[in-house]
Amino acid sequence: MALIVQKYGGTSVGDPDRIKNVARKVVDRKRKGDSVVVVASAMSGETNKLVVLVNKIAEIHDTREYDQVVSTGEQVTIGLLTLAIQALGEKSRSFLGLQVPIVTDSAHAKARILRVGEENLRKALAEGVIPVVAGFQGVDEKGNVTTLGRGGSDTTAVAVAAALKADLCEIYTDVDGVYTTDPNVCETARRLDRVSYDEMLELASMGAKVLQTRSVELAKRFRVPVLTLSSFTEGGGTLMKEEEGMESLVVSGVAADRNEAKVTVSHVPDRQGIAARLFQAVADANIVVDMIVQNVSESGYTDITFTVTKADLARAQKTVEGIIGELGAGKVRTDVNVAKVSIIGSGMHSQPGVAAQMFSSLAKEGINILMISTSEIKVSCLIEEKYAELAVRALHATFLENG
Amino acid sequence: MALIVQKYGGTSVGDPDRIKNVARKVVDRKRKGDSVVVVASAMSGETNKLVVLVNKIAEIHDTREYDQVVSTGEQVTIGLLTLAIQALGEKSRSFLGLQVPIVTDSAHAKARILRVGEENLRKALAEGVIPVVAGFQGVDEKGNVTTLGRGGSDTTAVAVAAALKADLCEIYTDVDGVYTTDPNVCETARRLDRVSYDEMLELASMGAKVLQTRSVELAKRFRVPVLTLSSFTEGGGTLMKEEEGMESLVVSGVAADRNEAKVTVSHVPDRQGIAARLFQAVADANIVVDMIVQNVSESGYTDITFTVTKADLARAQKTVEGIIGELGAGKVRTDVNVAKVSIIGSGMHSQPGVAAQMFSSLAKEGINILMISTSEIKVSCLIEEKYAELAVRALHATFLENG
User: Fold this and answer.
1) ipTM greater than 0.85
2) Cα(B209)–Cα(B224) distance, integer angstroms
3) Which residues of B touch A55 (CB under 8 A)?
4) What pTM value is reported for the model?
């Protein structure tokens, strides 16, 4: 008998019939002899409706009150799902974040989980009750309702699984697992049976929207095995667990991120502290920088190029233009027509020549590389956006279609 | 400086613009120097939507989960209203039932308030914060979310006013007070400036839907002055407070209730215990009986007539038909085409002849009286339904239009 935490996302509980369908899956699992704890999101679209209401009242708002409003979507779902489970003859009880409790800090709208009280859930399980926990919401030390930020229900599920030392955390969504690359771009993309936490972190941060990054970090920290699978089809799924003892591929995924834009500051005096001042100003504007490249200095001047999200580009440009006078730098150029393609794989750092193979694969297709950044398990290249699909298919063929 | 509890109903907070309008009223009052605590209902229609969702999942349902779902309507409103108050520059904070706390028993869907914790609200008031409290919801001793039954927000407001010993509880609704009778029936109906708790209790139970009966009982018990008024027009209102020292009218209101139906059991043996067995059977079927008349016995047999709500009529008839054999009674007849008209007034019991005046007023219009029931402050007559409006106008003219 295993202890399983199952998380169902918004589309899985999108209407009363789908909620009944989820209840059947939960009850089936319980009747096979496992103990089940369910974590549920708001019905799809409901949280957005609530956000729209808040914005109609006040564009700039107190996030405590925002949380009070937007946390209600999950509250509705857990009550309904509990009723649907009871209608099938099993005992069930719903738990708000504050009833578990899932204690968070007070950073409303983006709270972080401090601890999950396991006592109430354990007691329910001991009574044969299926607990249904509200995703996304928590409570701070003062009793205020908090939320974890969009997609926070994944994090709730992993945190509950960690607290209960569950054997498995199952994340039901509308896709049946993690793929080697986007199947819409590359027909030969295939589902990965297994993926390591680090690989998943890179894939998640690259826009593979299967799991929220924070939930992967949490799963890694507490070594929670996470299976992502579809609530609409049977079987399949990708199991995320520690890499030790796993038969790792050198490269396990290829991803493209179109959400980046490039900022180049030219003719920057090559003196100590100049780059620090530049990026401090950008950080002060609350802008996250991804890739950074600084060219080798010639004649005492250099160029600095970095990438930000497309949404932050205008603010980044304004910030940098406000400081170039002080820096004694030249001018600022921006480019939105870029994409970042990456190869990801935990086996990579022990395999020499992977980066070189990537550059050569792109060169063969006539794709110019604008920037490069590397990590232990990832190599990313910034290229012209129009080549993104071509690059993904070429890299997928090179690394994932002959073995 | 007075301490005021203001309650706004569903239509008053029905959309973002109306919520902003309520916020202006709250802020105006605060800026005139009063301390204000707000109690808010769900936006009109929202609670019904949630009830429909629950019924789509399970017609017969666990009321704990029902409460978990239907209490979210108020949670949304208090967050939005707090944001609207903040947008006008005042400090405000929303309070769920469990954050006040409003502690109730565990009778889900119809919980009764045990106590209202005043400490958190007092602290907020001391900081110049306008507390916005969720109506309708509470929390039981175990931390389960409870609801007070439909219209329970009035009860929340009066309970909060009682706990804080507020100077006044203002109930904003879509009518501007309590009328001598239904203005749709009788053009000369006029708003009462004052009404006693007992008169209001009778008026509320007669279907004058200004205040929930339970909230009136609570106001009476804790002597909370309650002003009911419109959130859409300025001025007006009816003040409900203790009758002592008030200039009481003999009759302060005329009401008609079309929701009754009549059951007559004929040829009932006139022996001890027969009536008791009949009404015990009805009570066991969970049917509330309003008026009861037993004719004087002739030749050892009598007729018993009573009224129930139209919704309970079929079940009442079935119940009685199931027991008449055992009772040795004759047959059961029912009539749905009846209405109960009543005159209400705390001055009545010290004024002889009021009932006689009522009967004569009805007789003058050719209206036959089917049943009579009286209390300290009320006389009710059951008549044919088609005469209901005529009876109301006649009684209003007799008692309320010459003085």
Assistant:
1) no
2) 19
3) none
4) 0.79
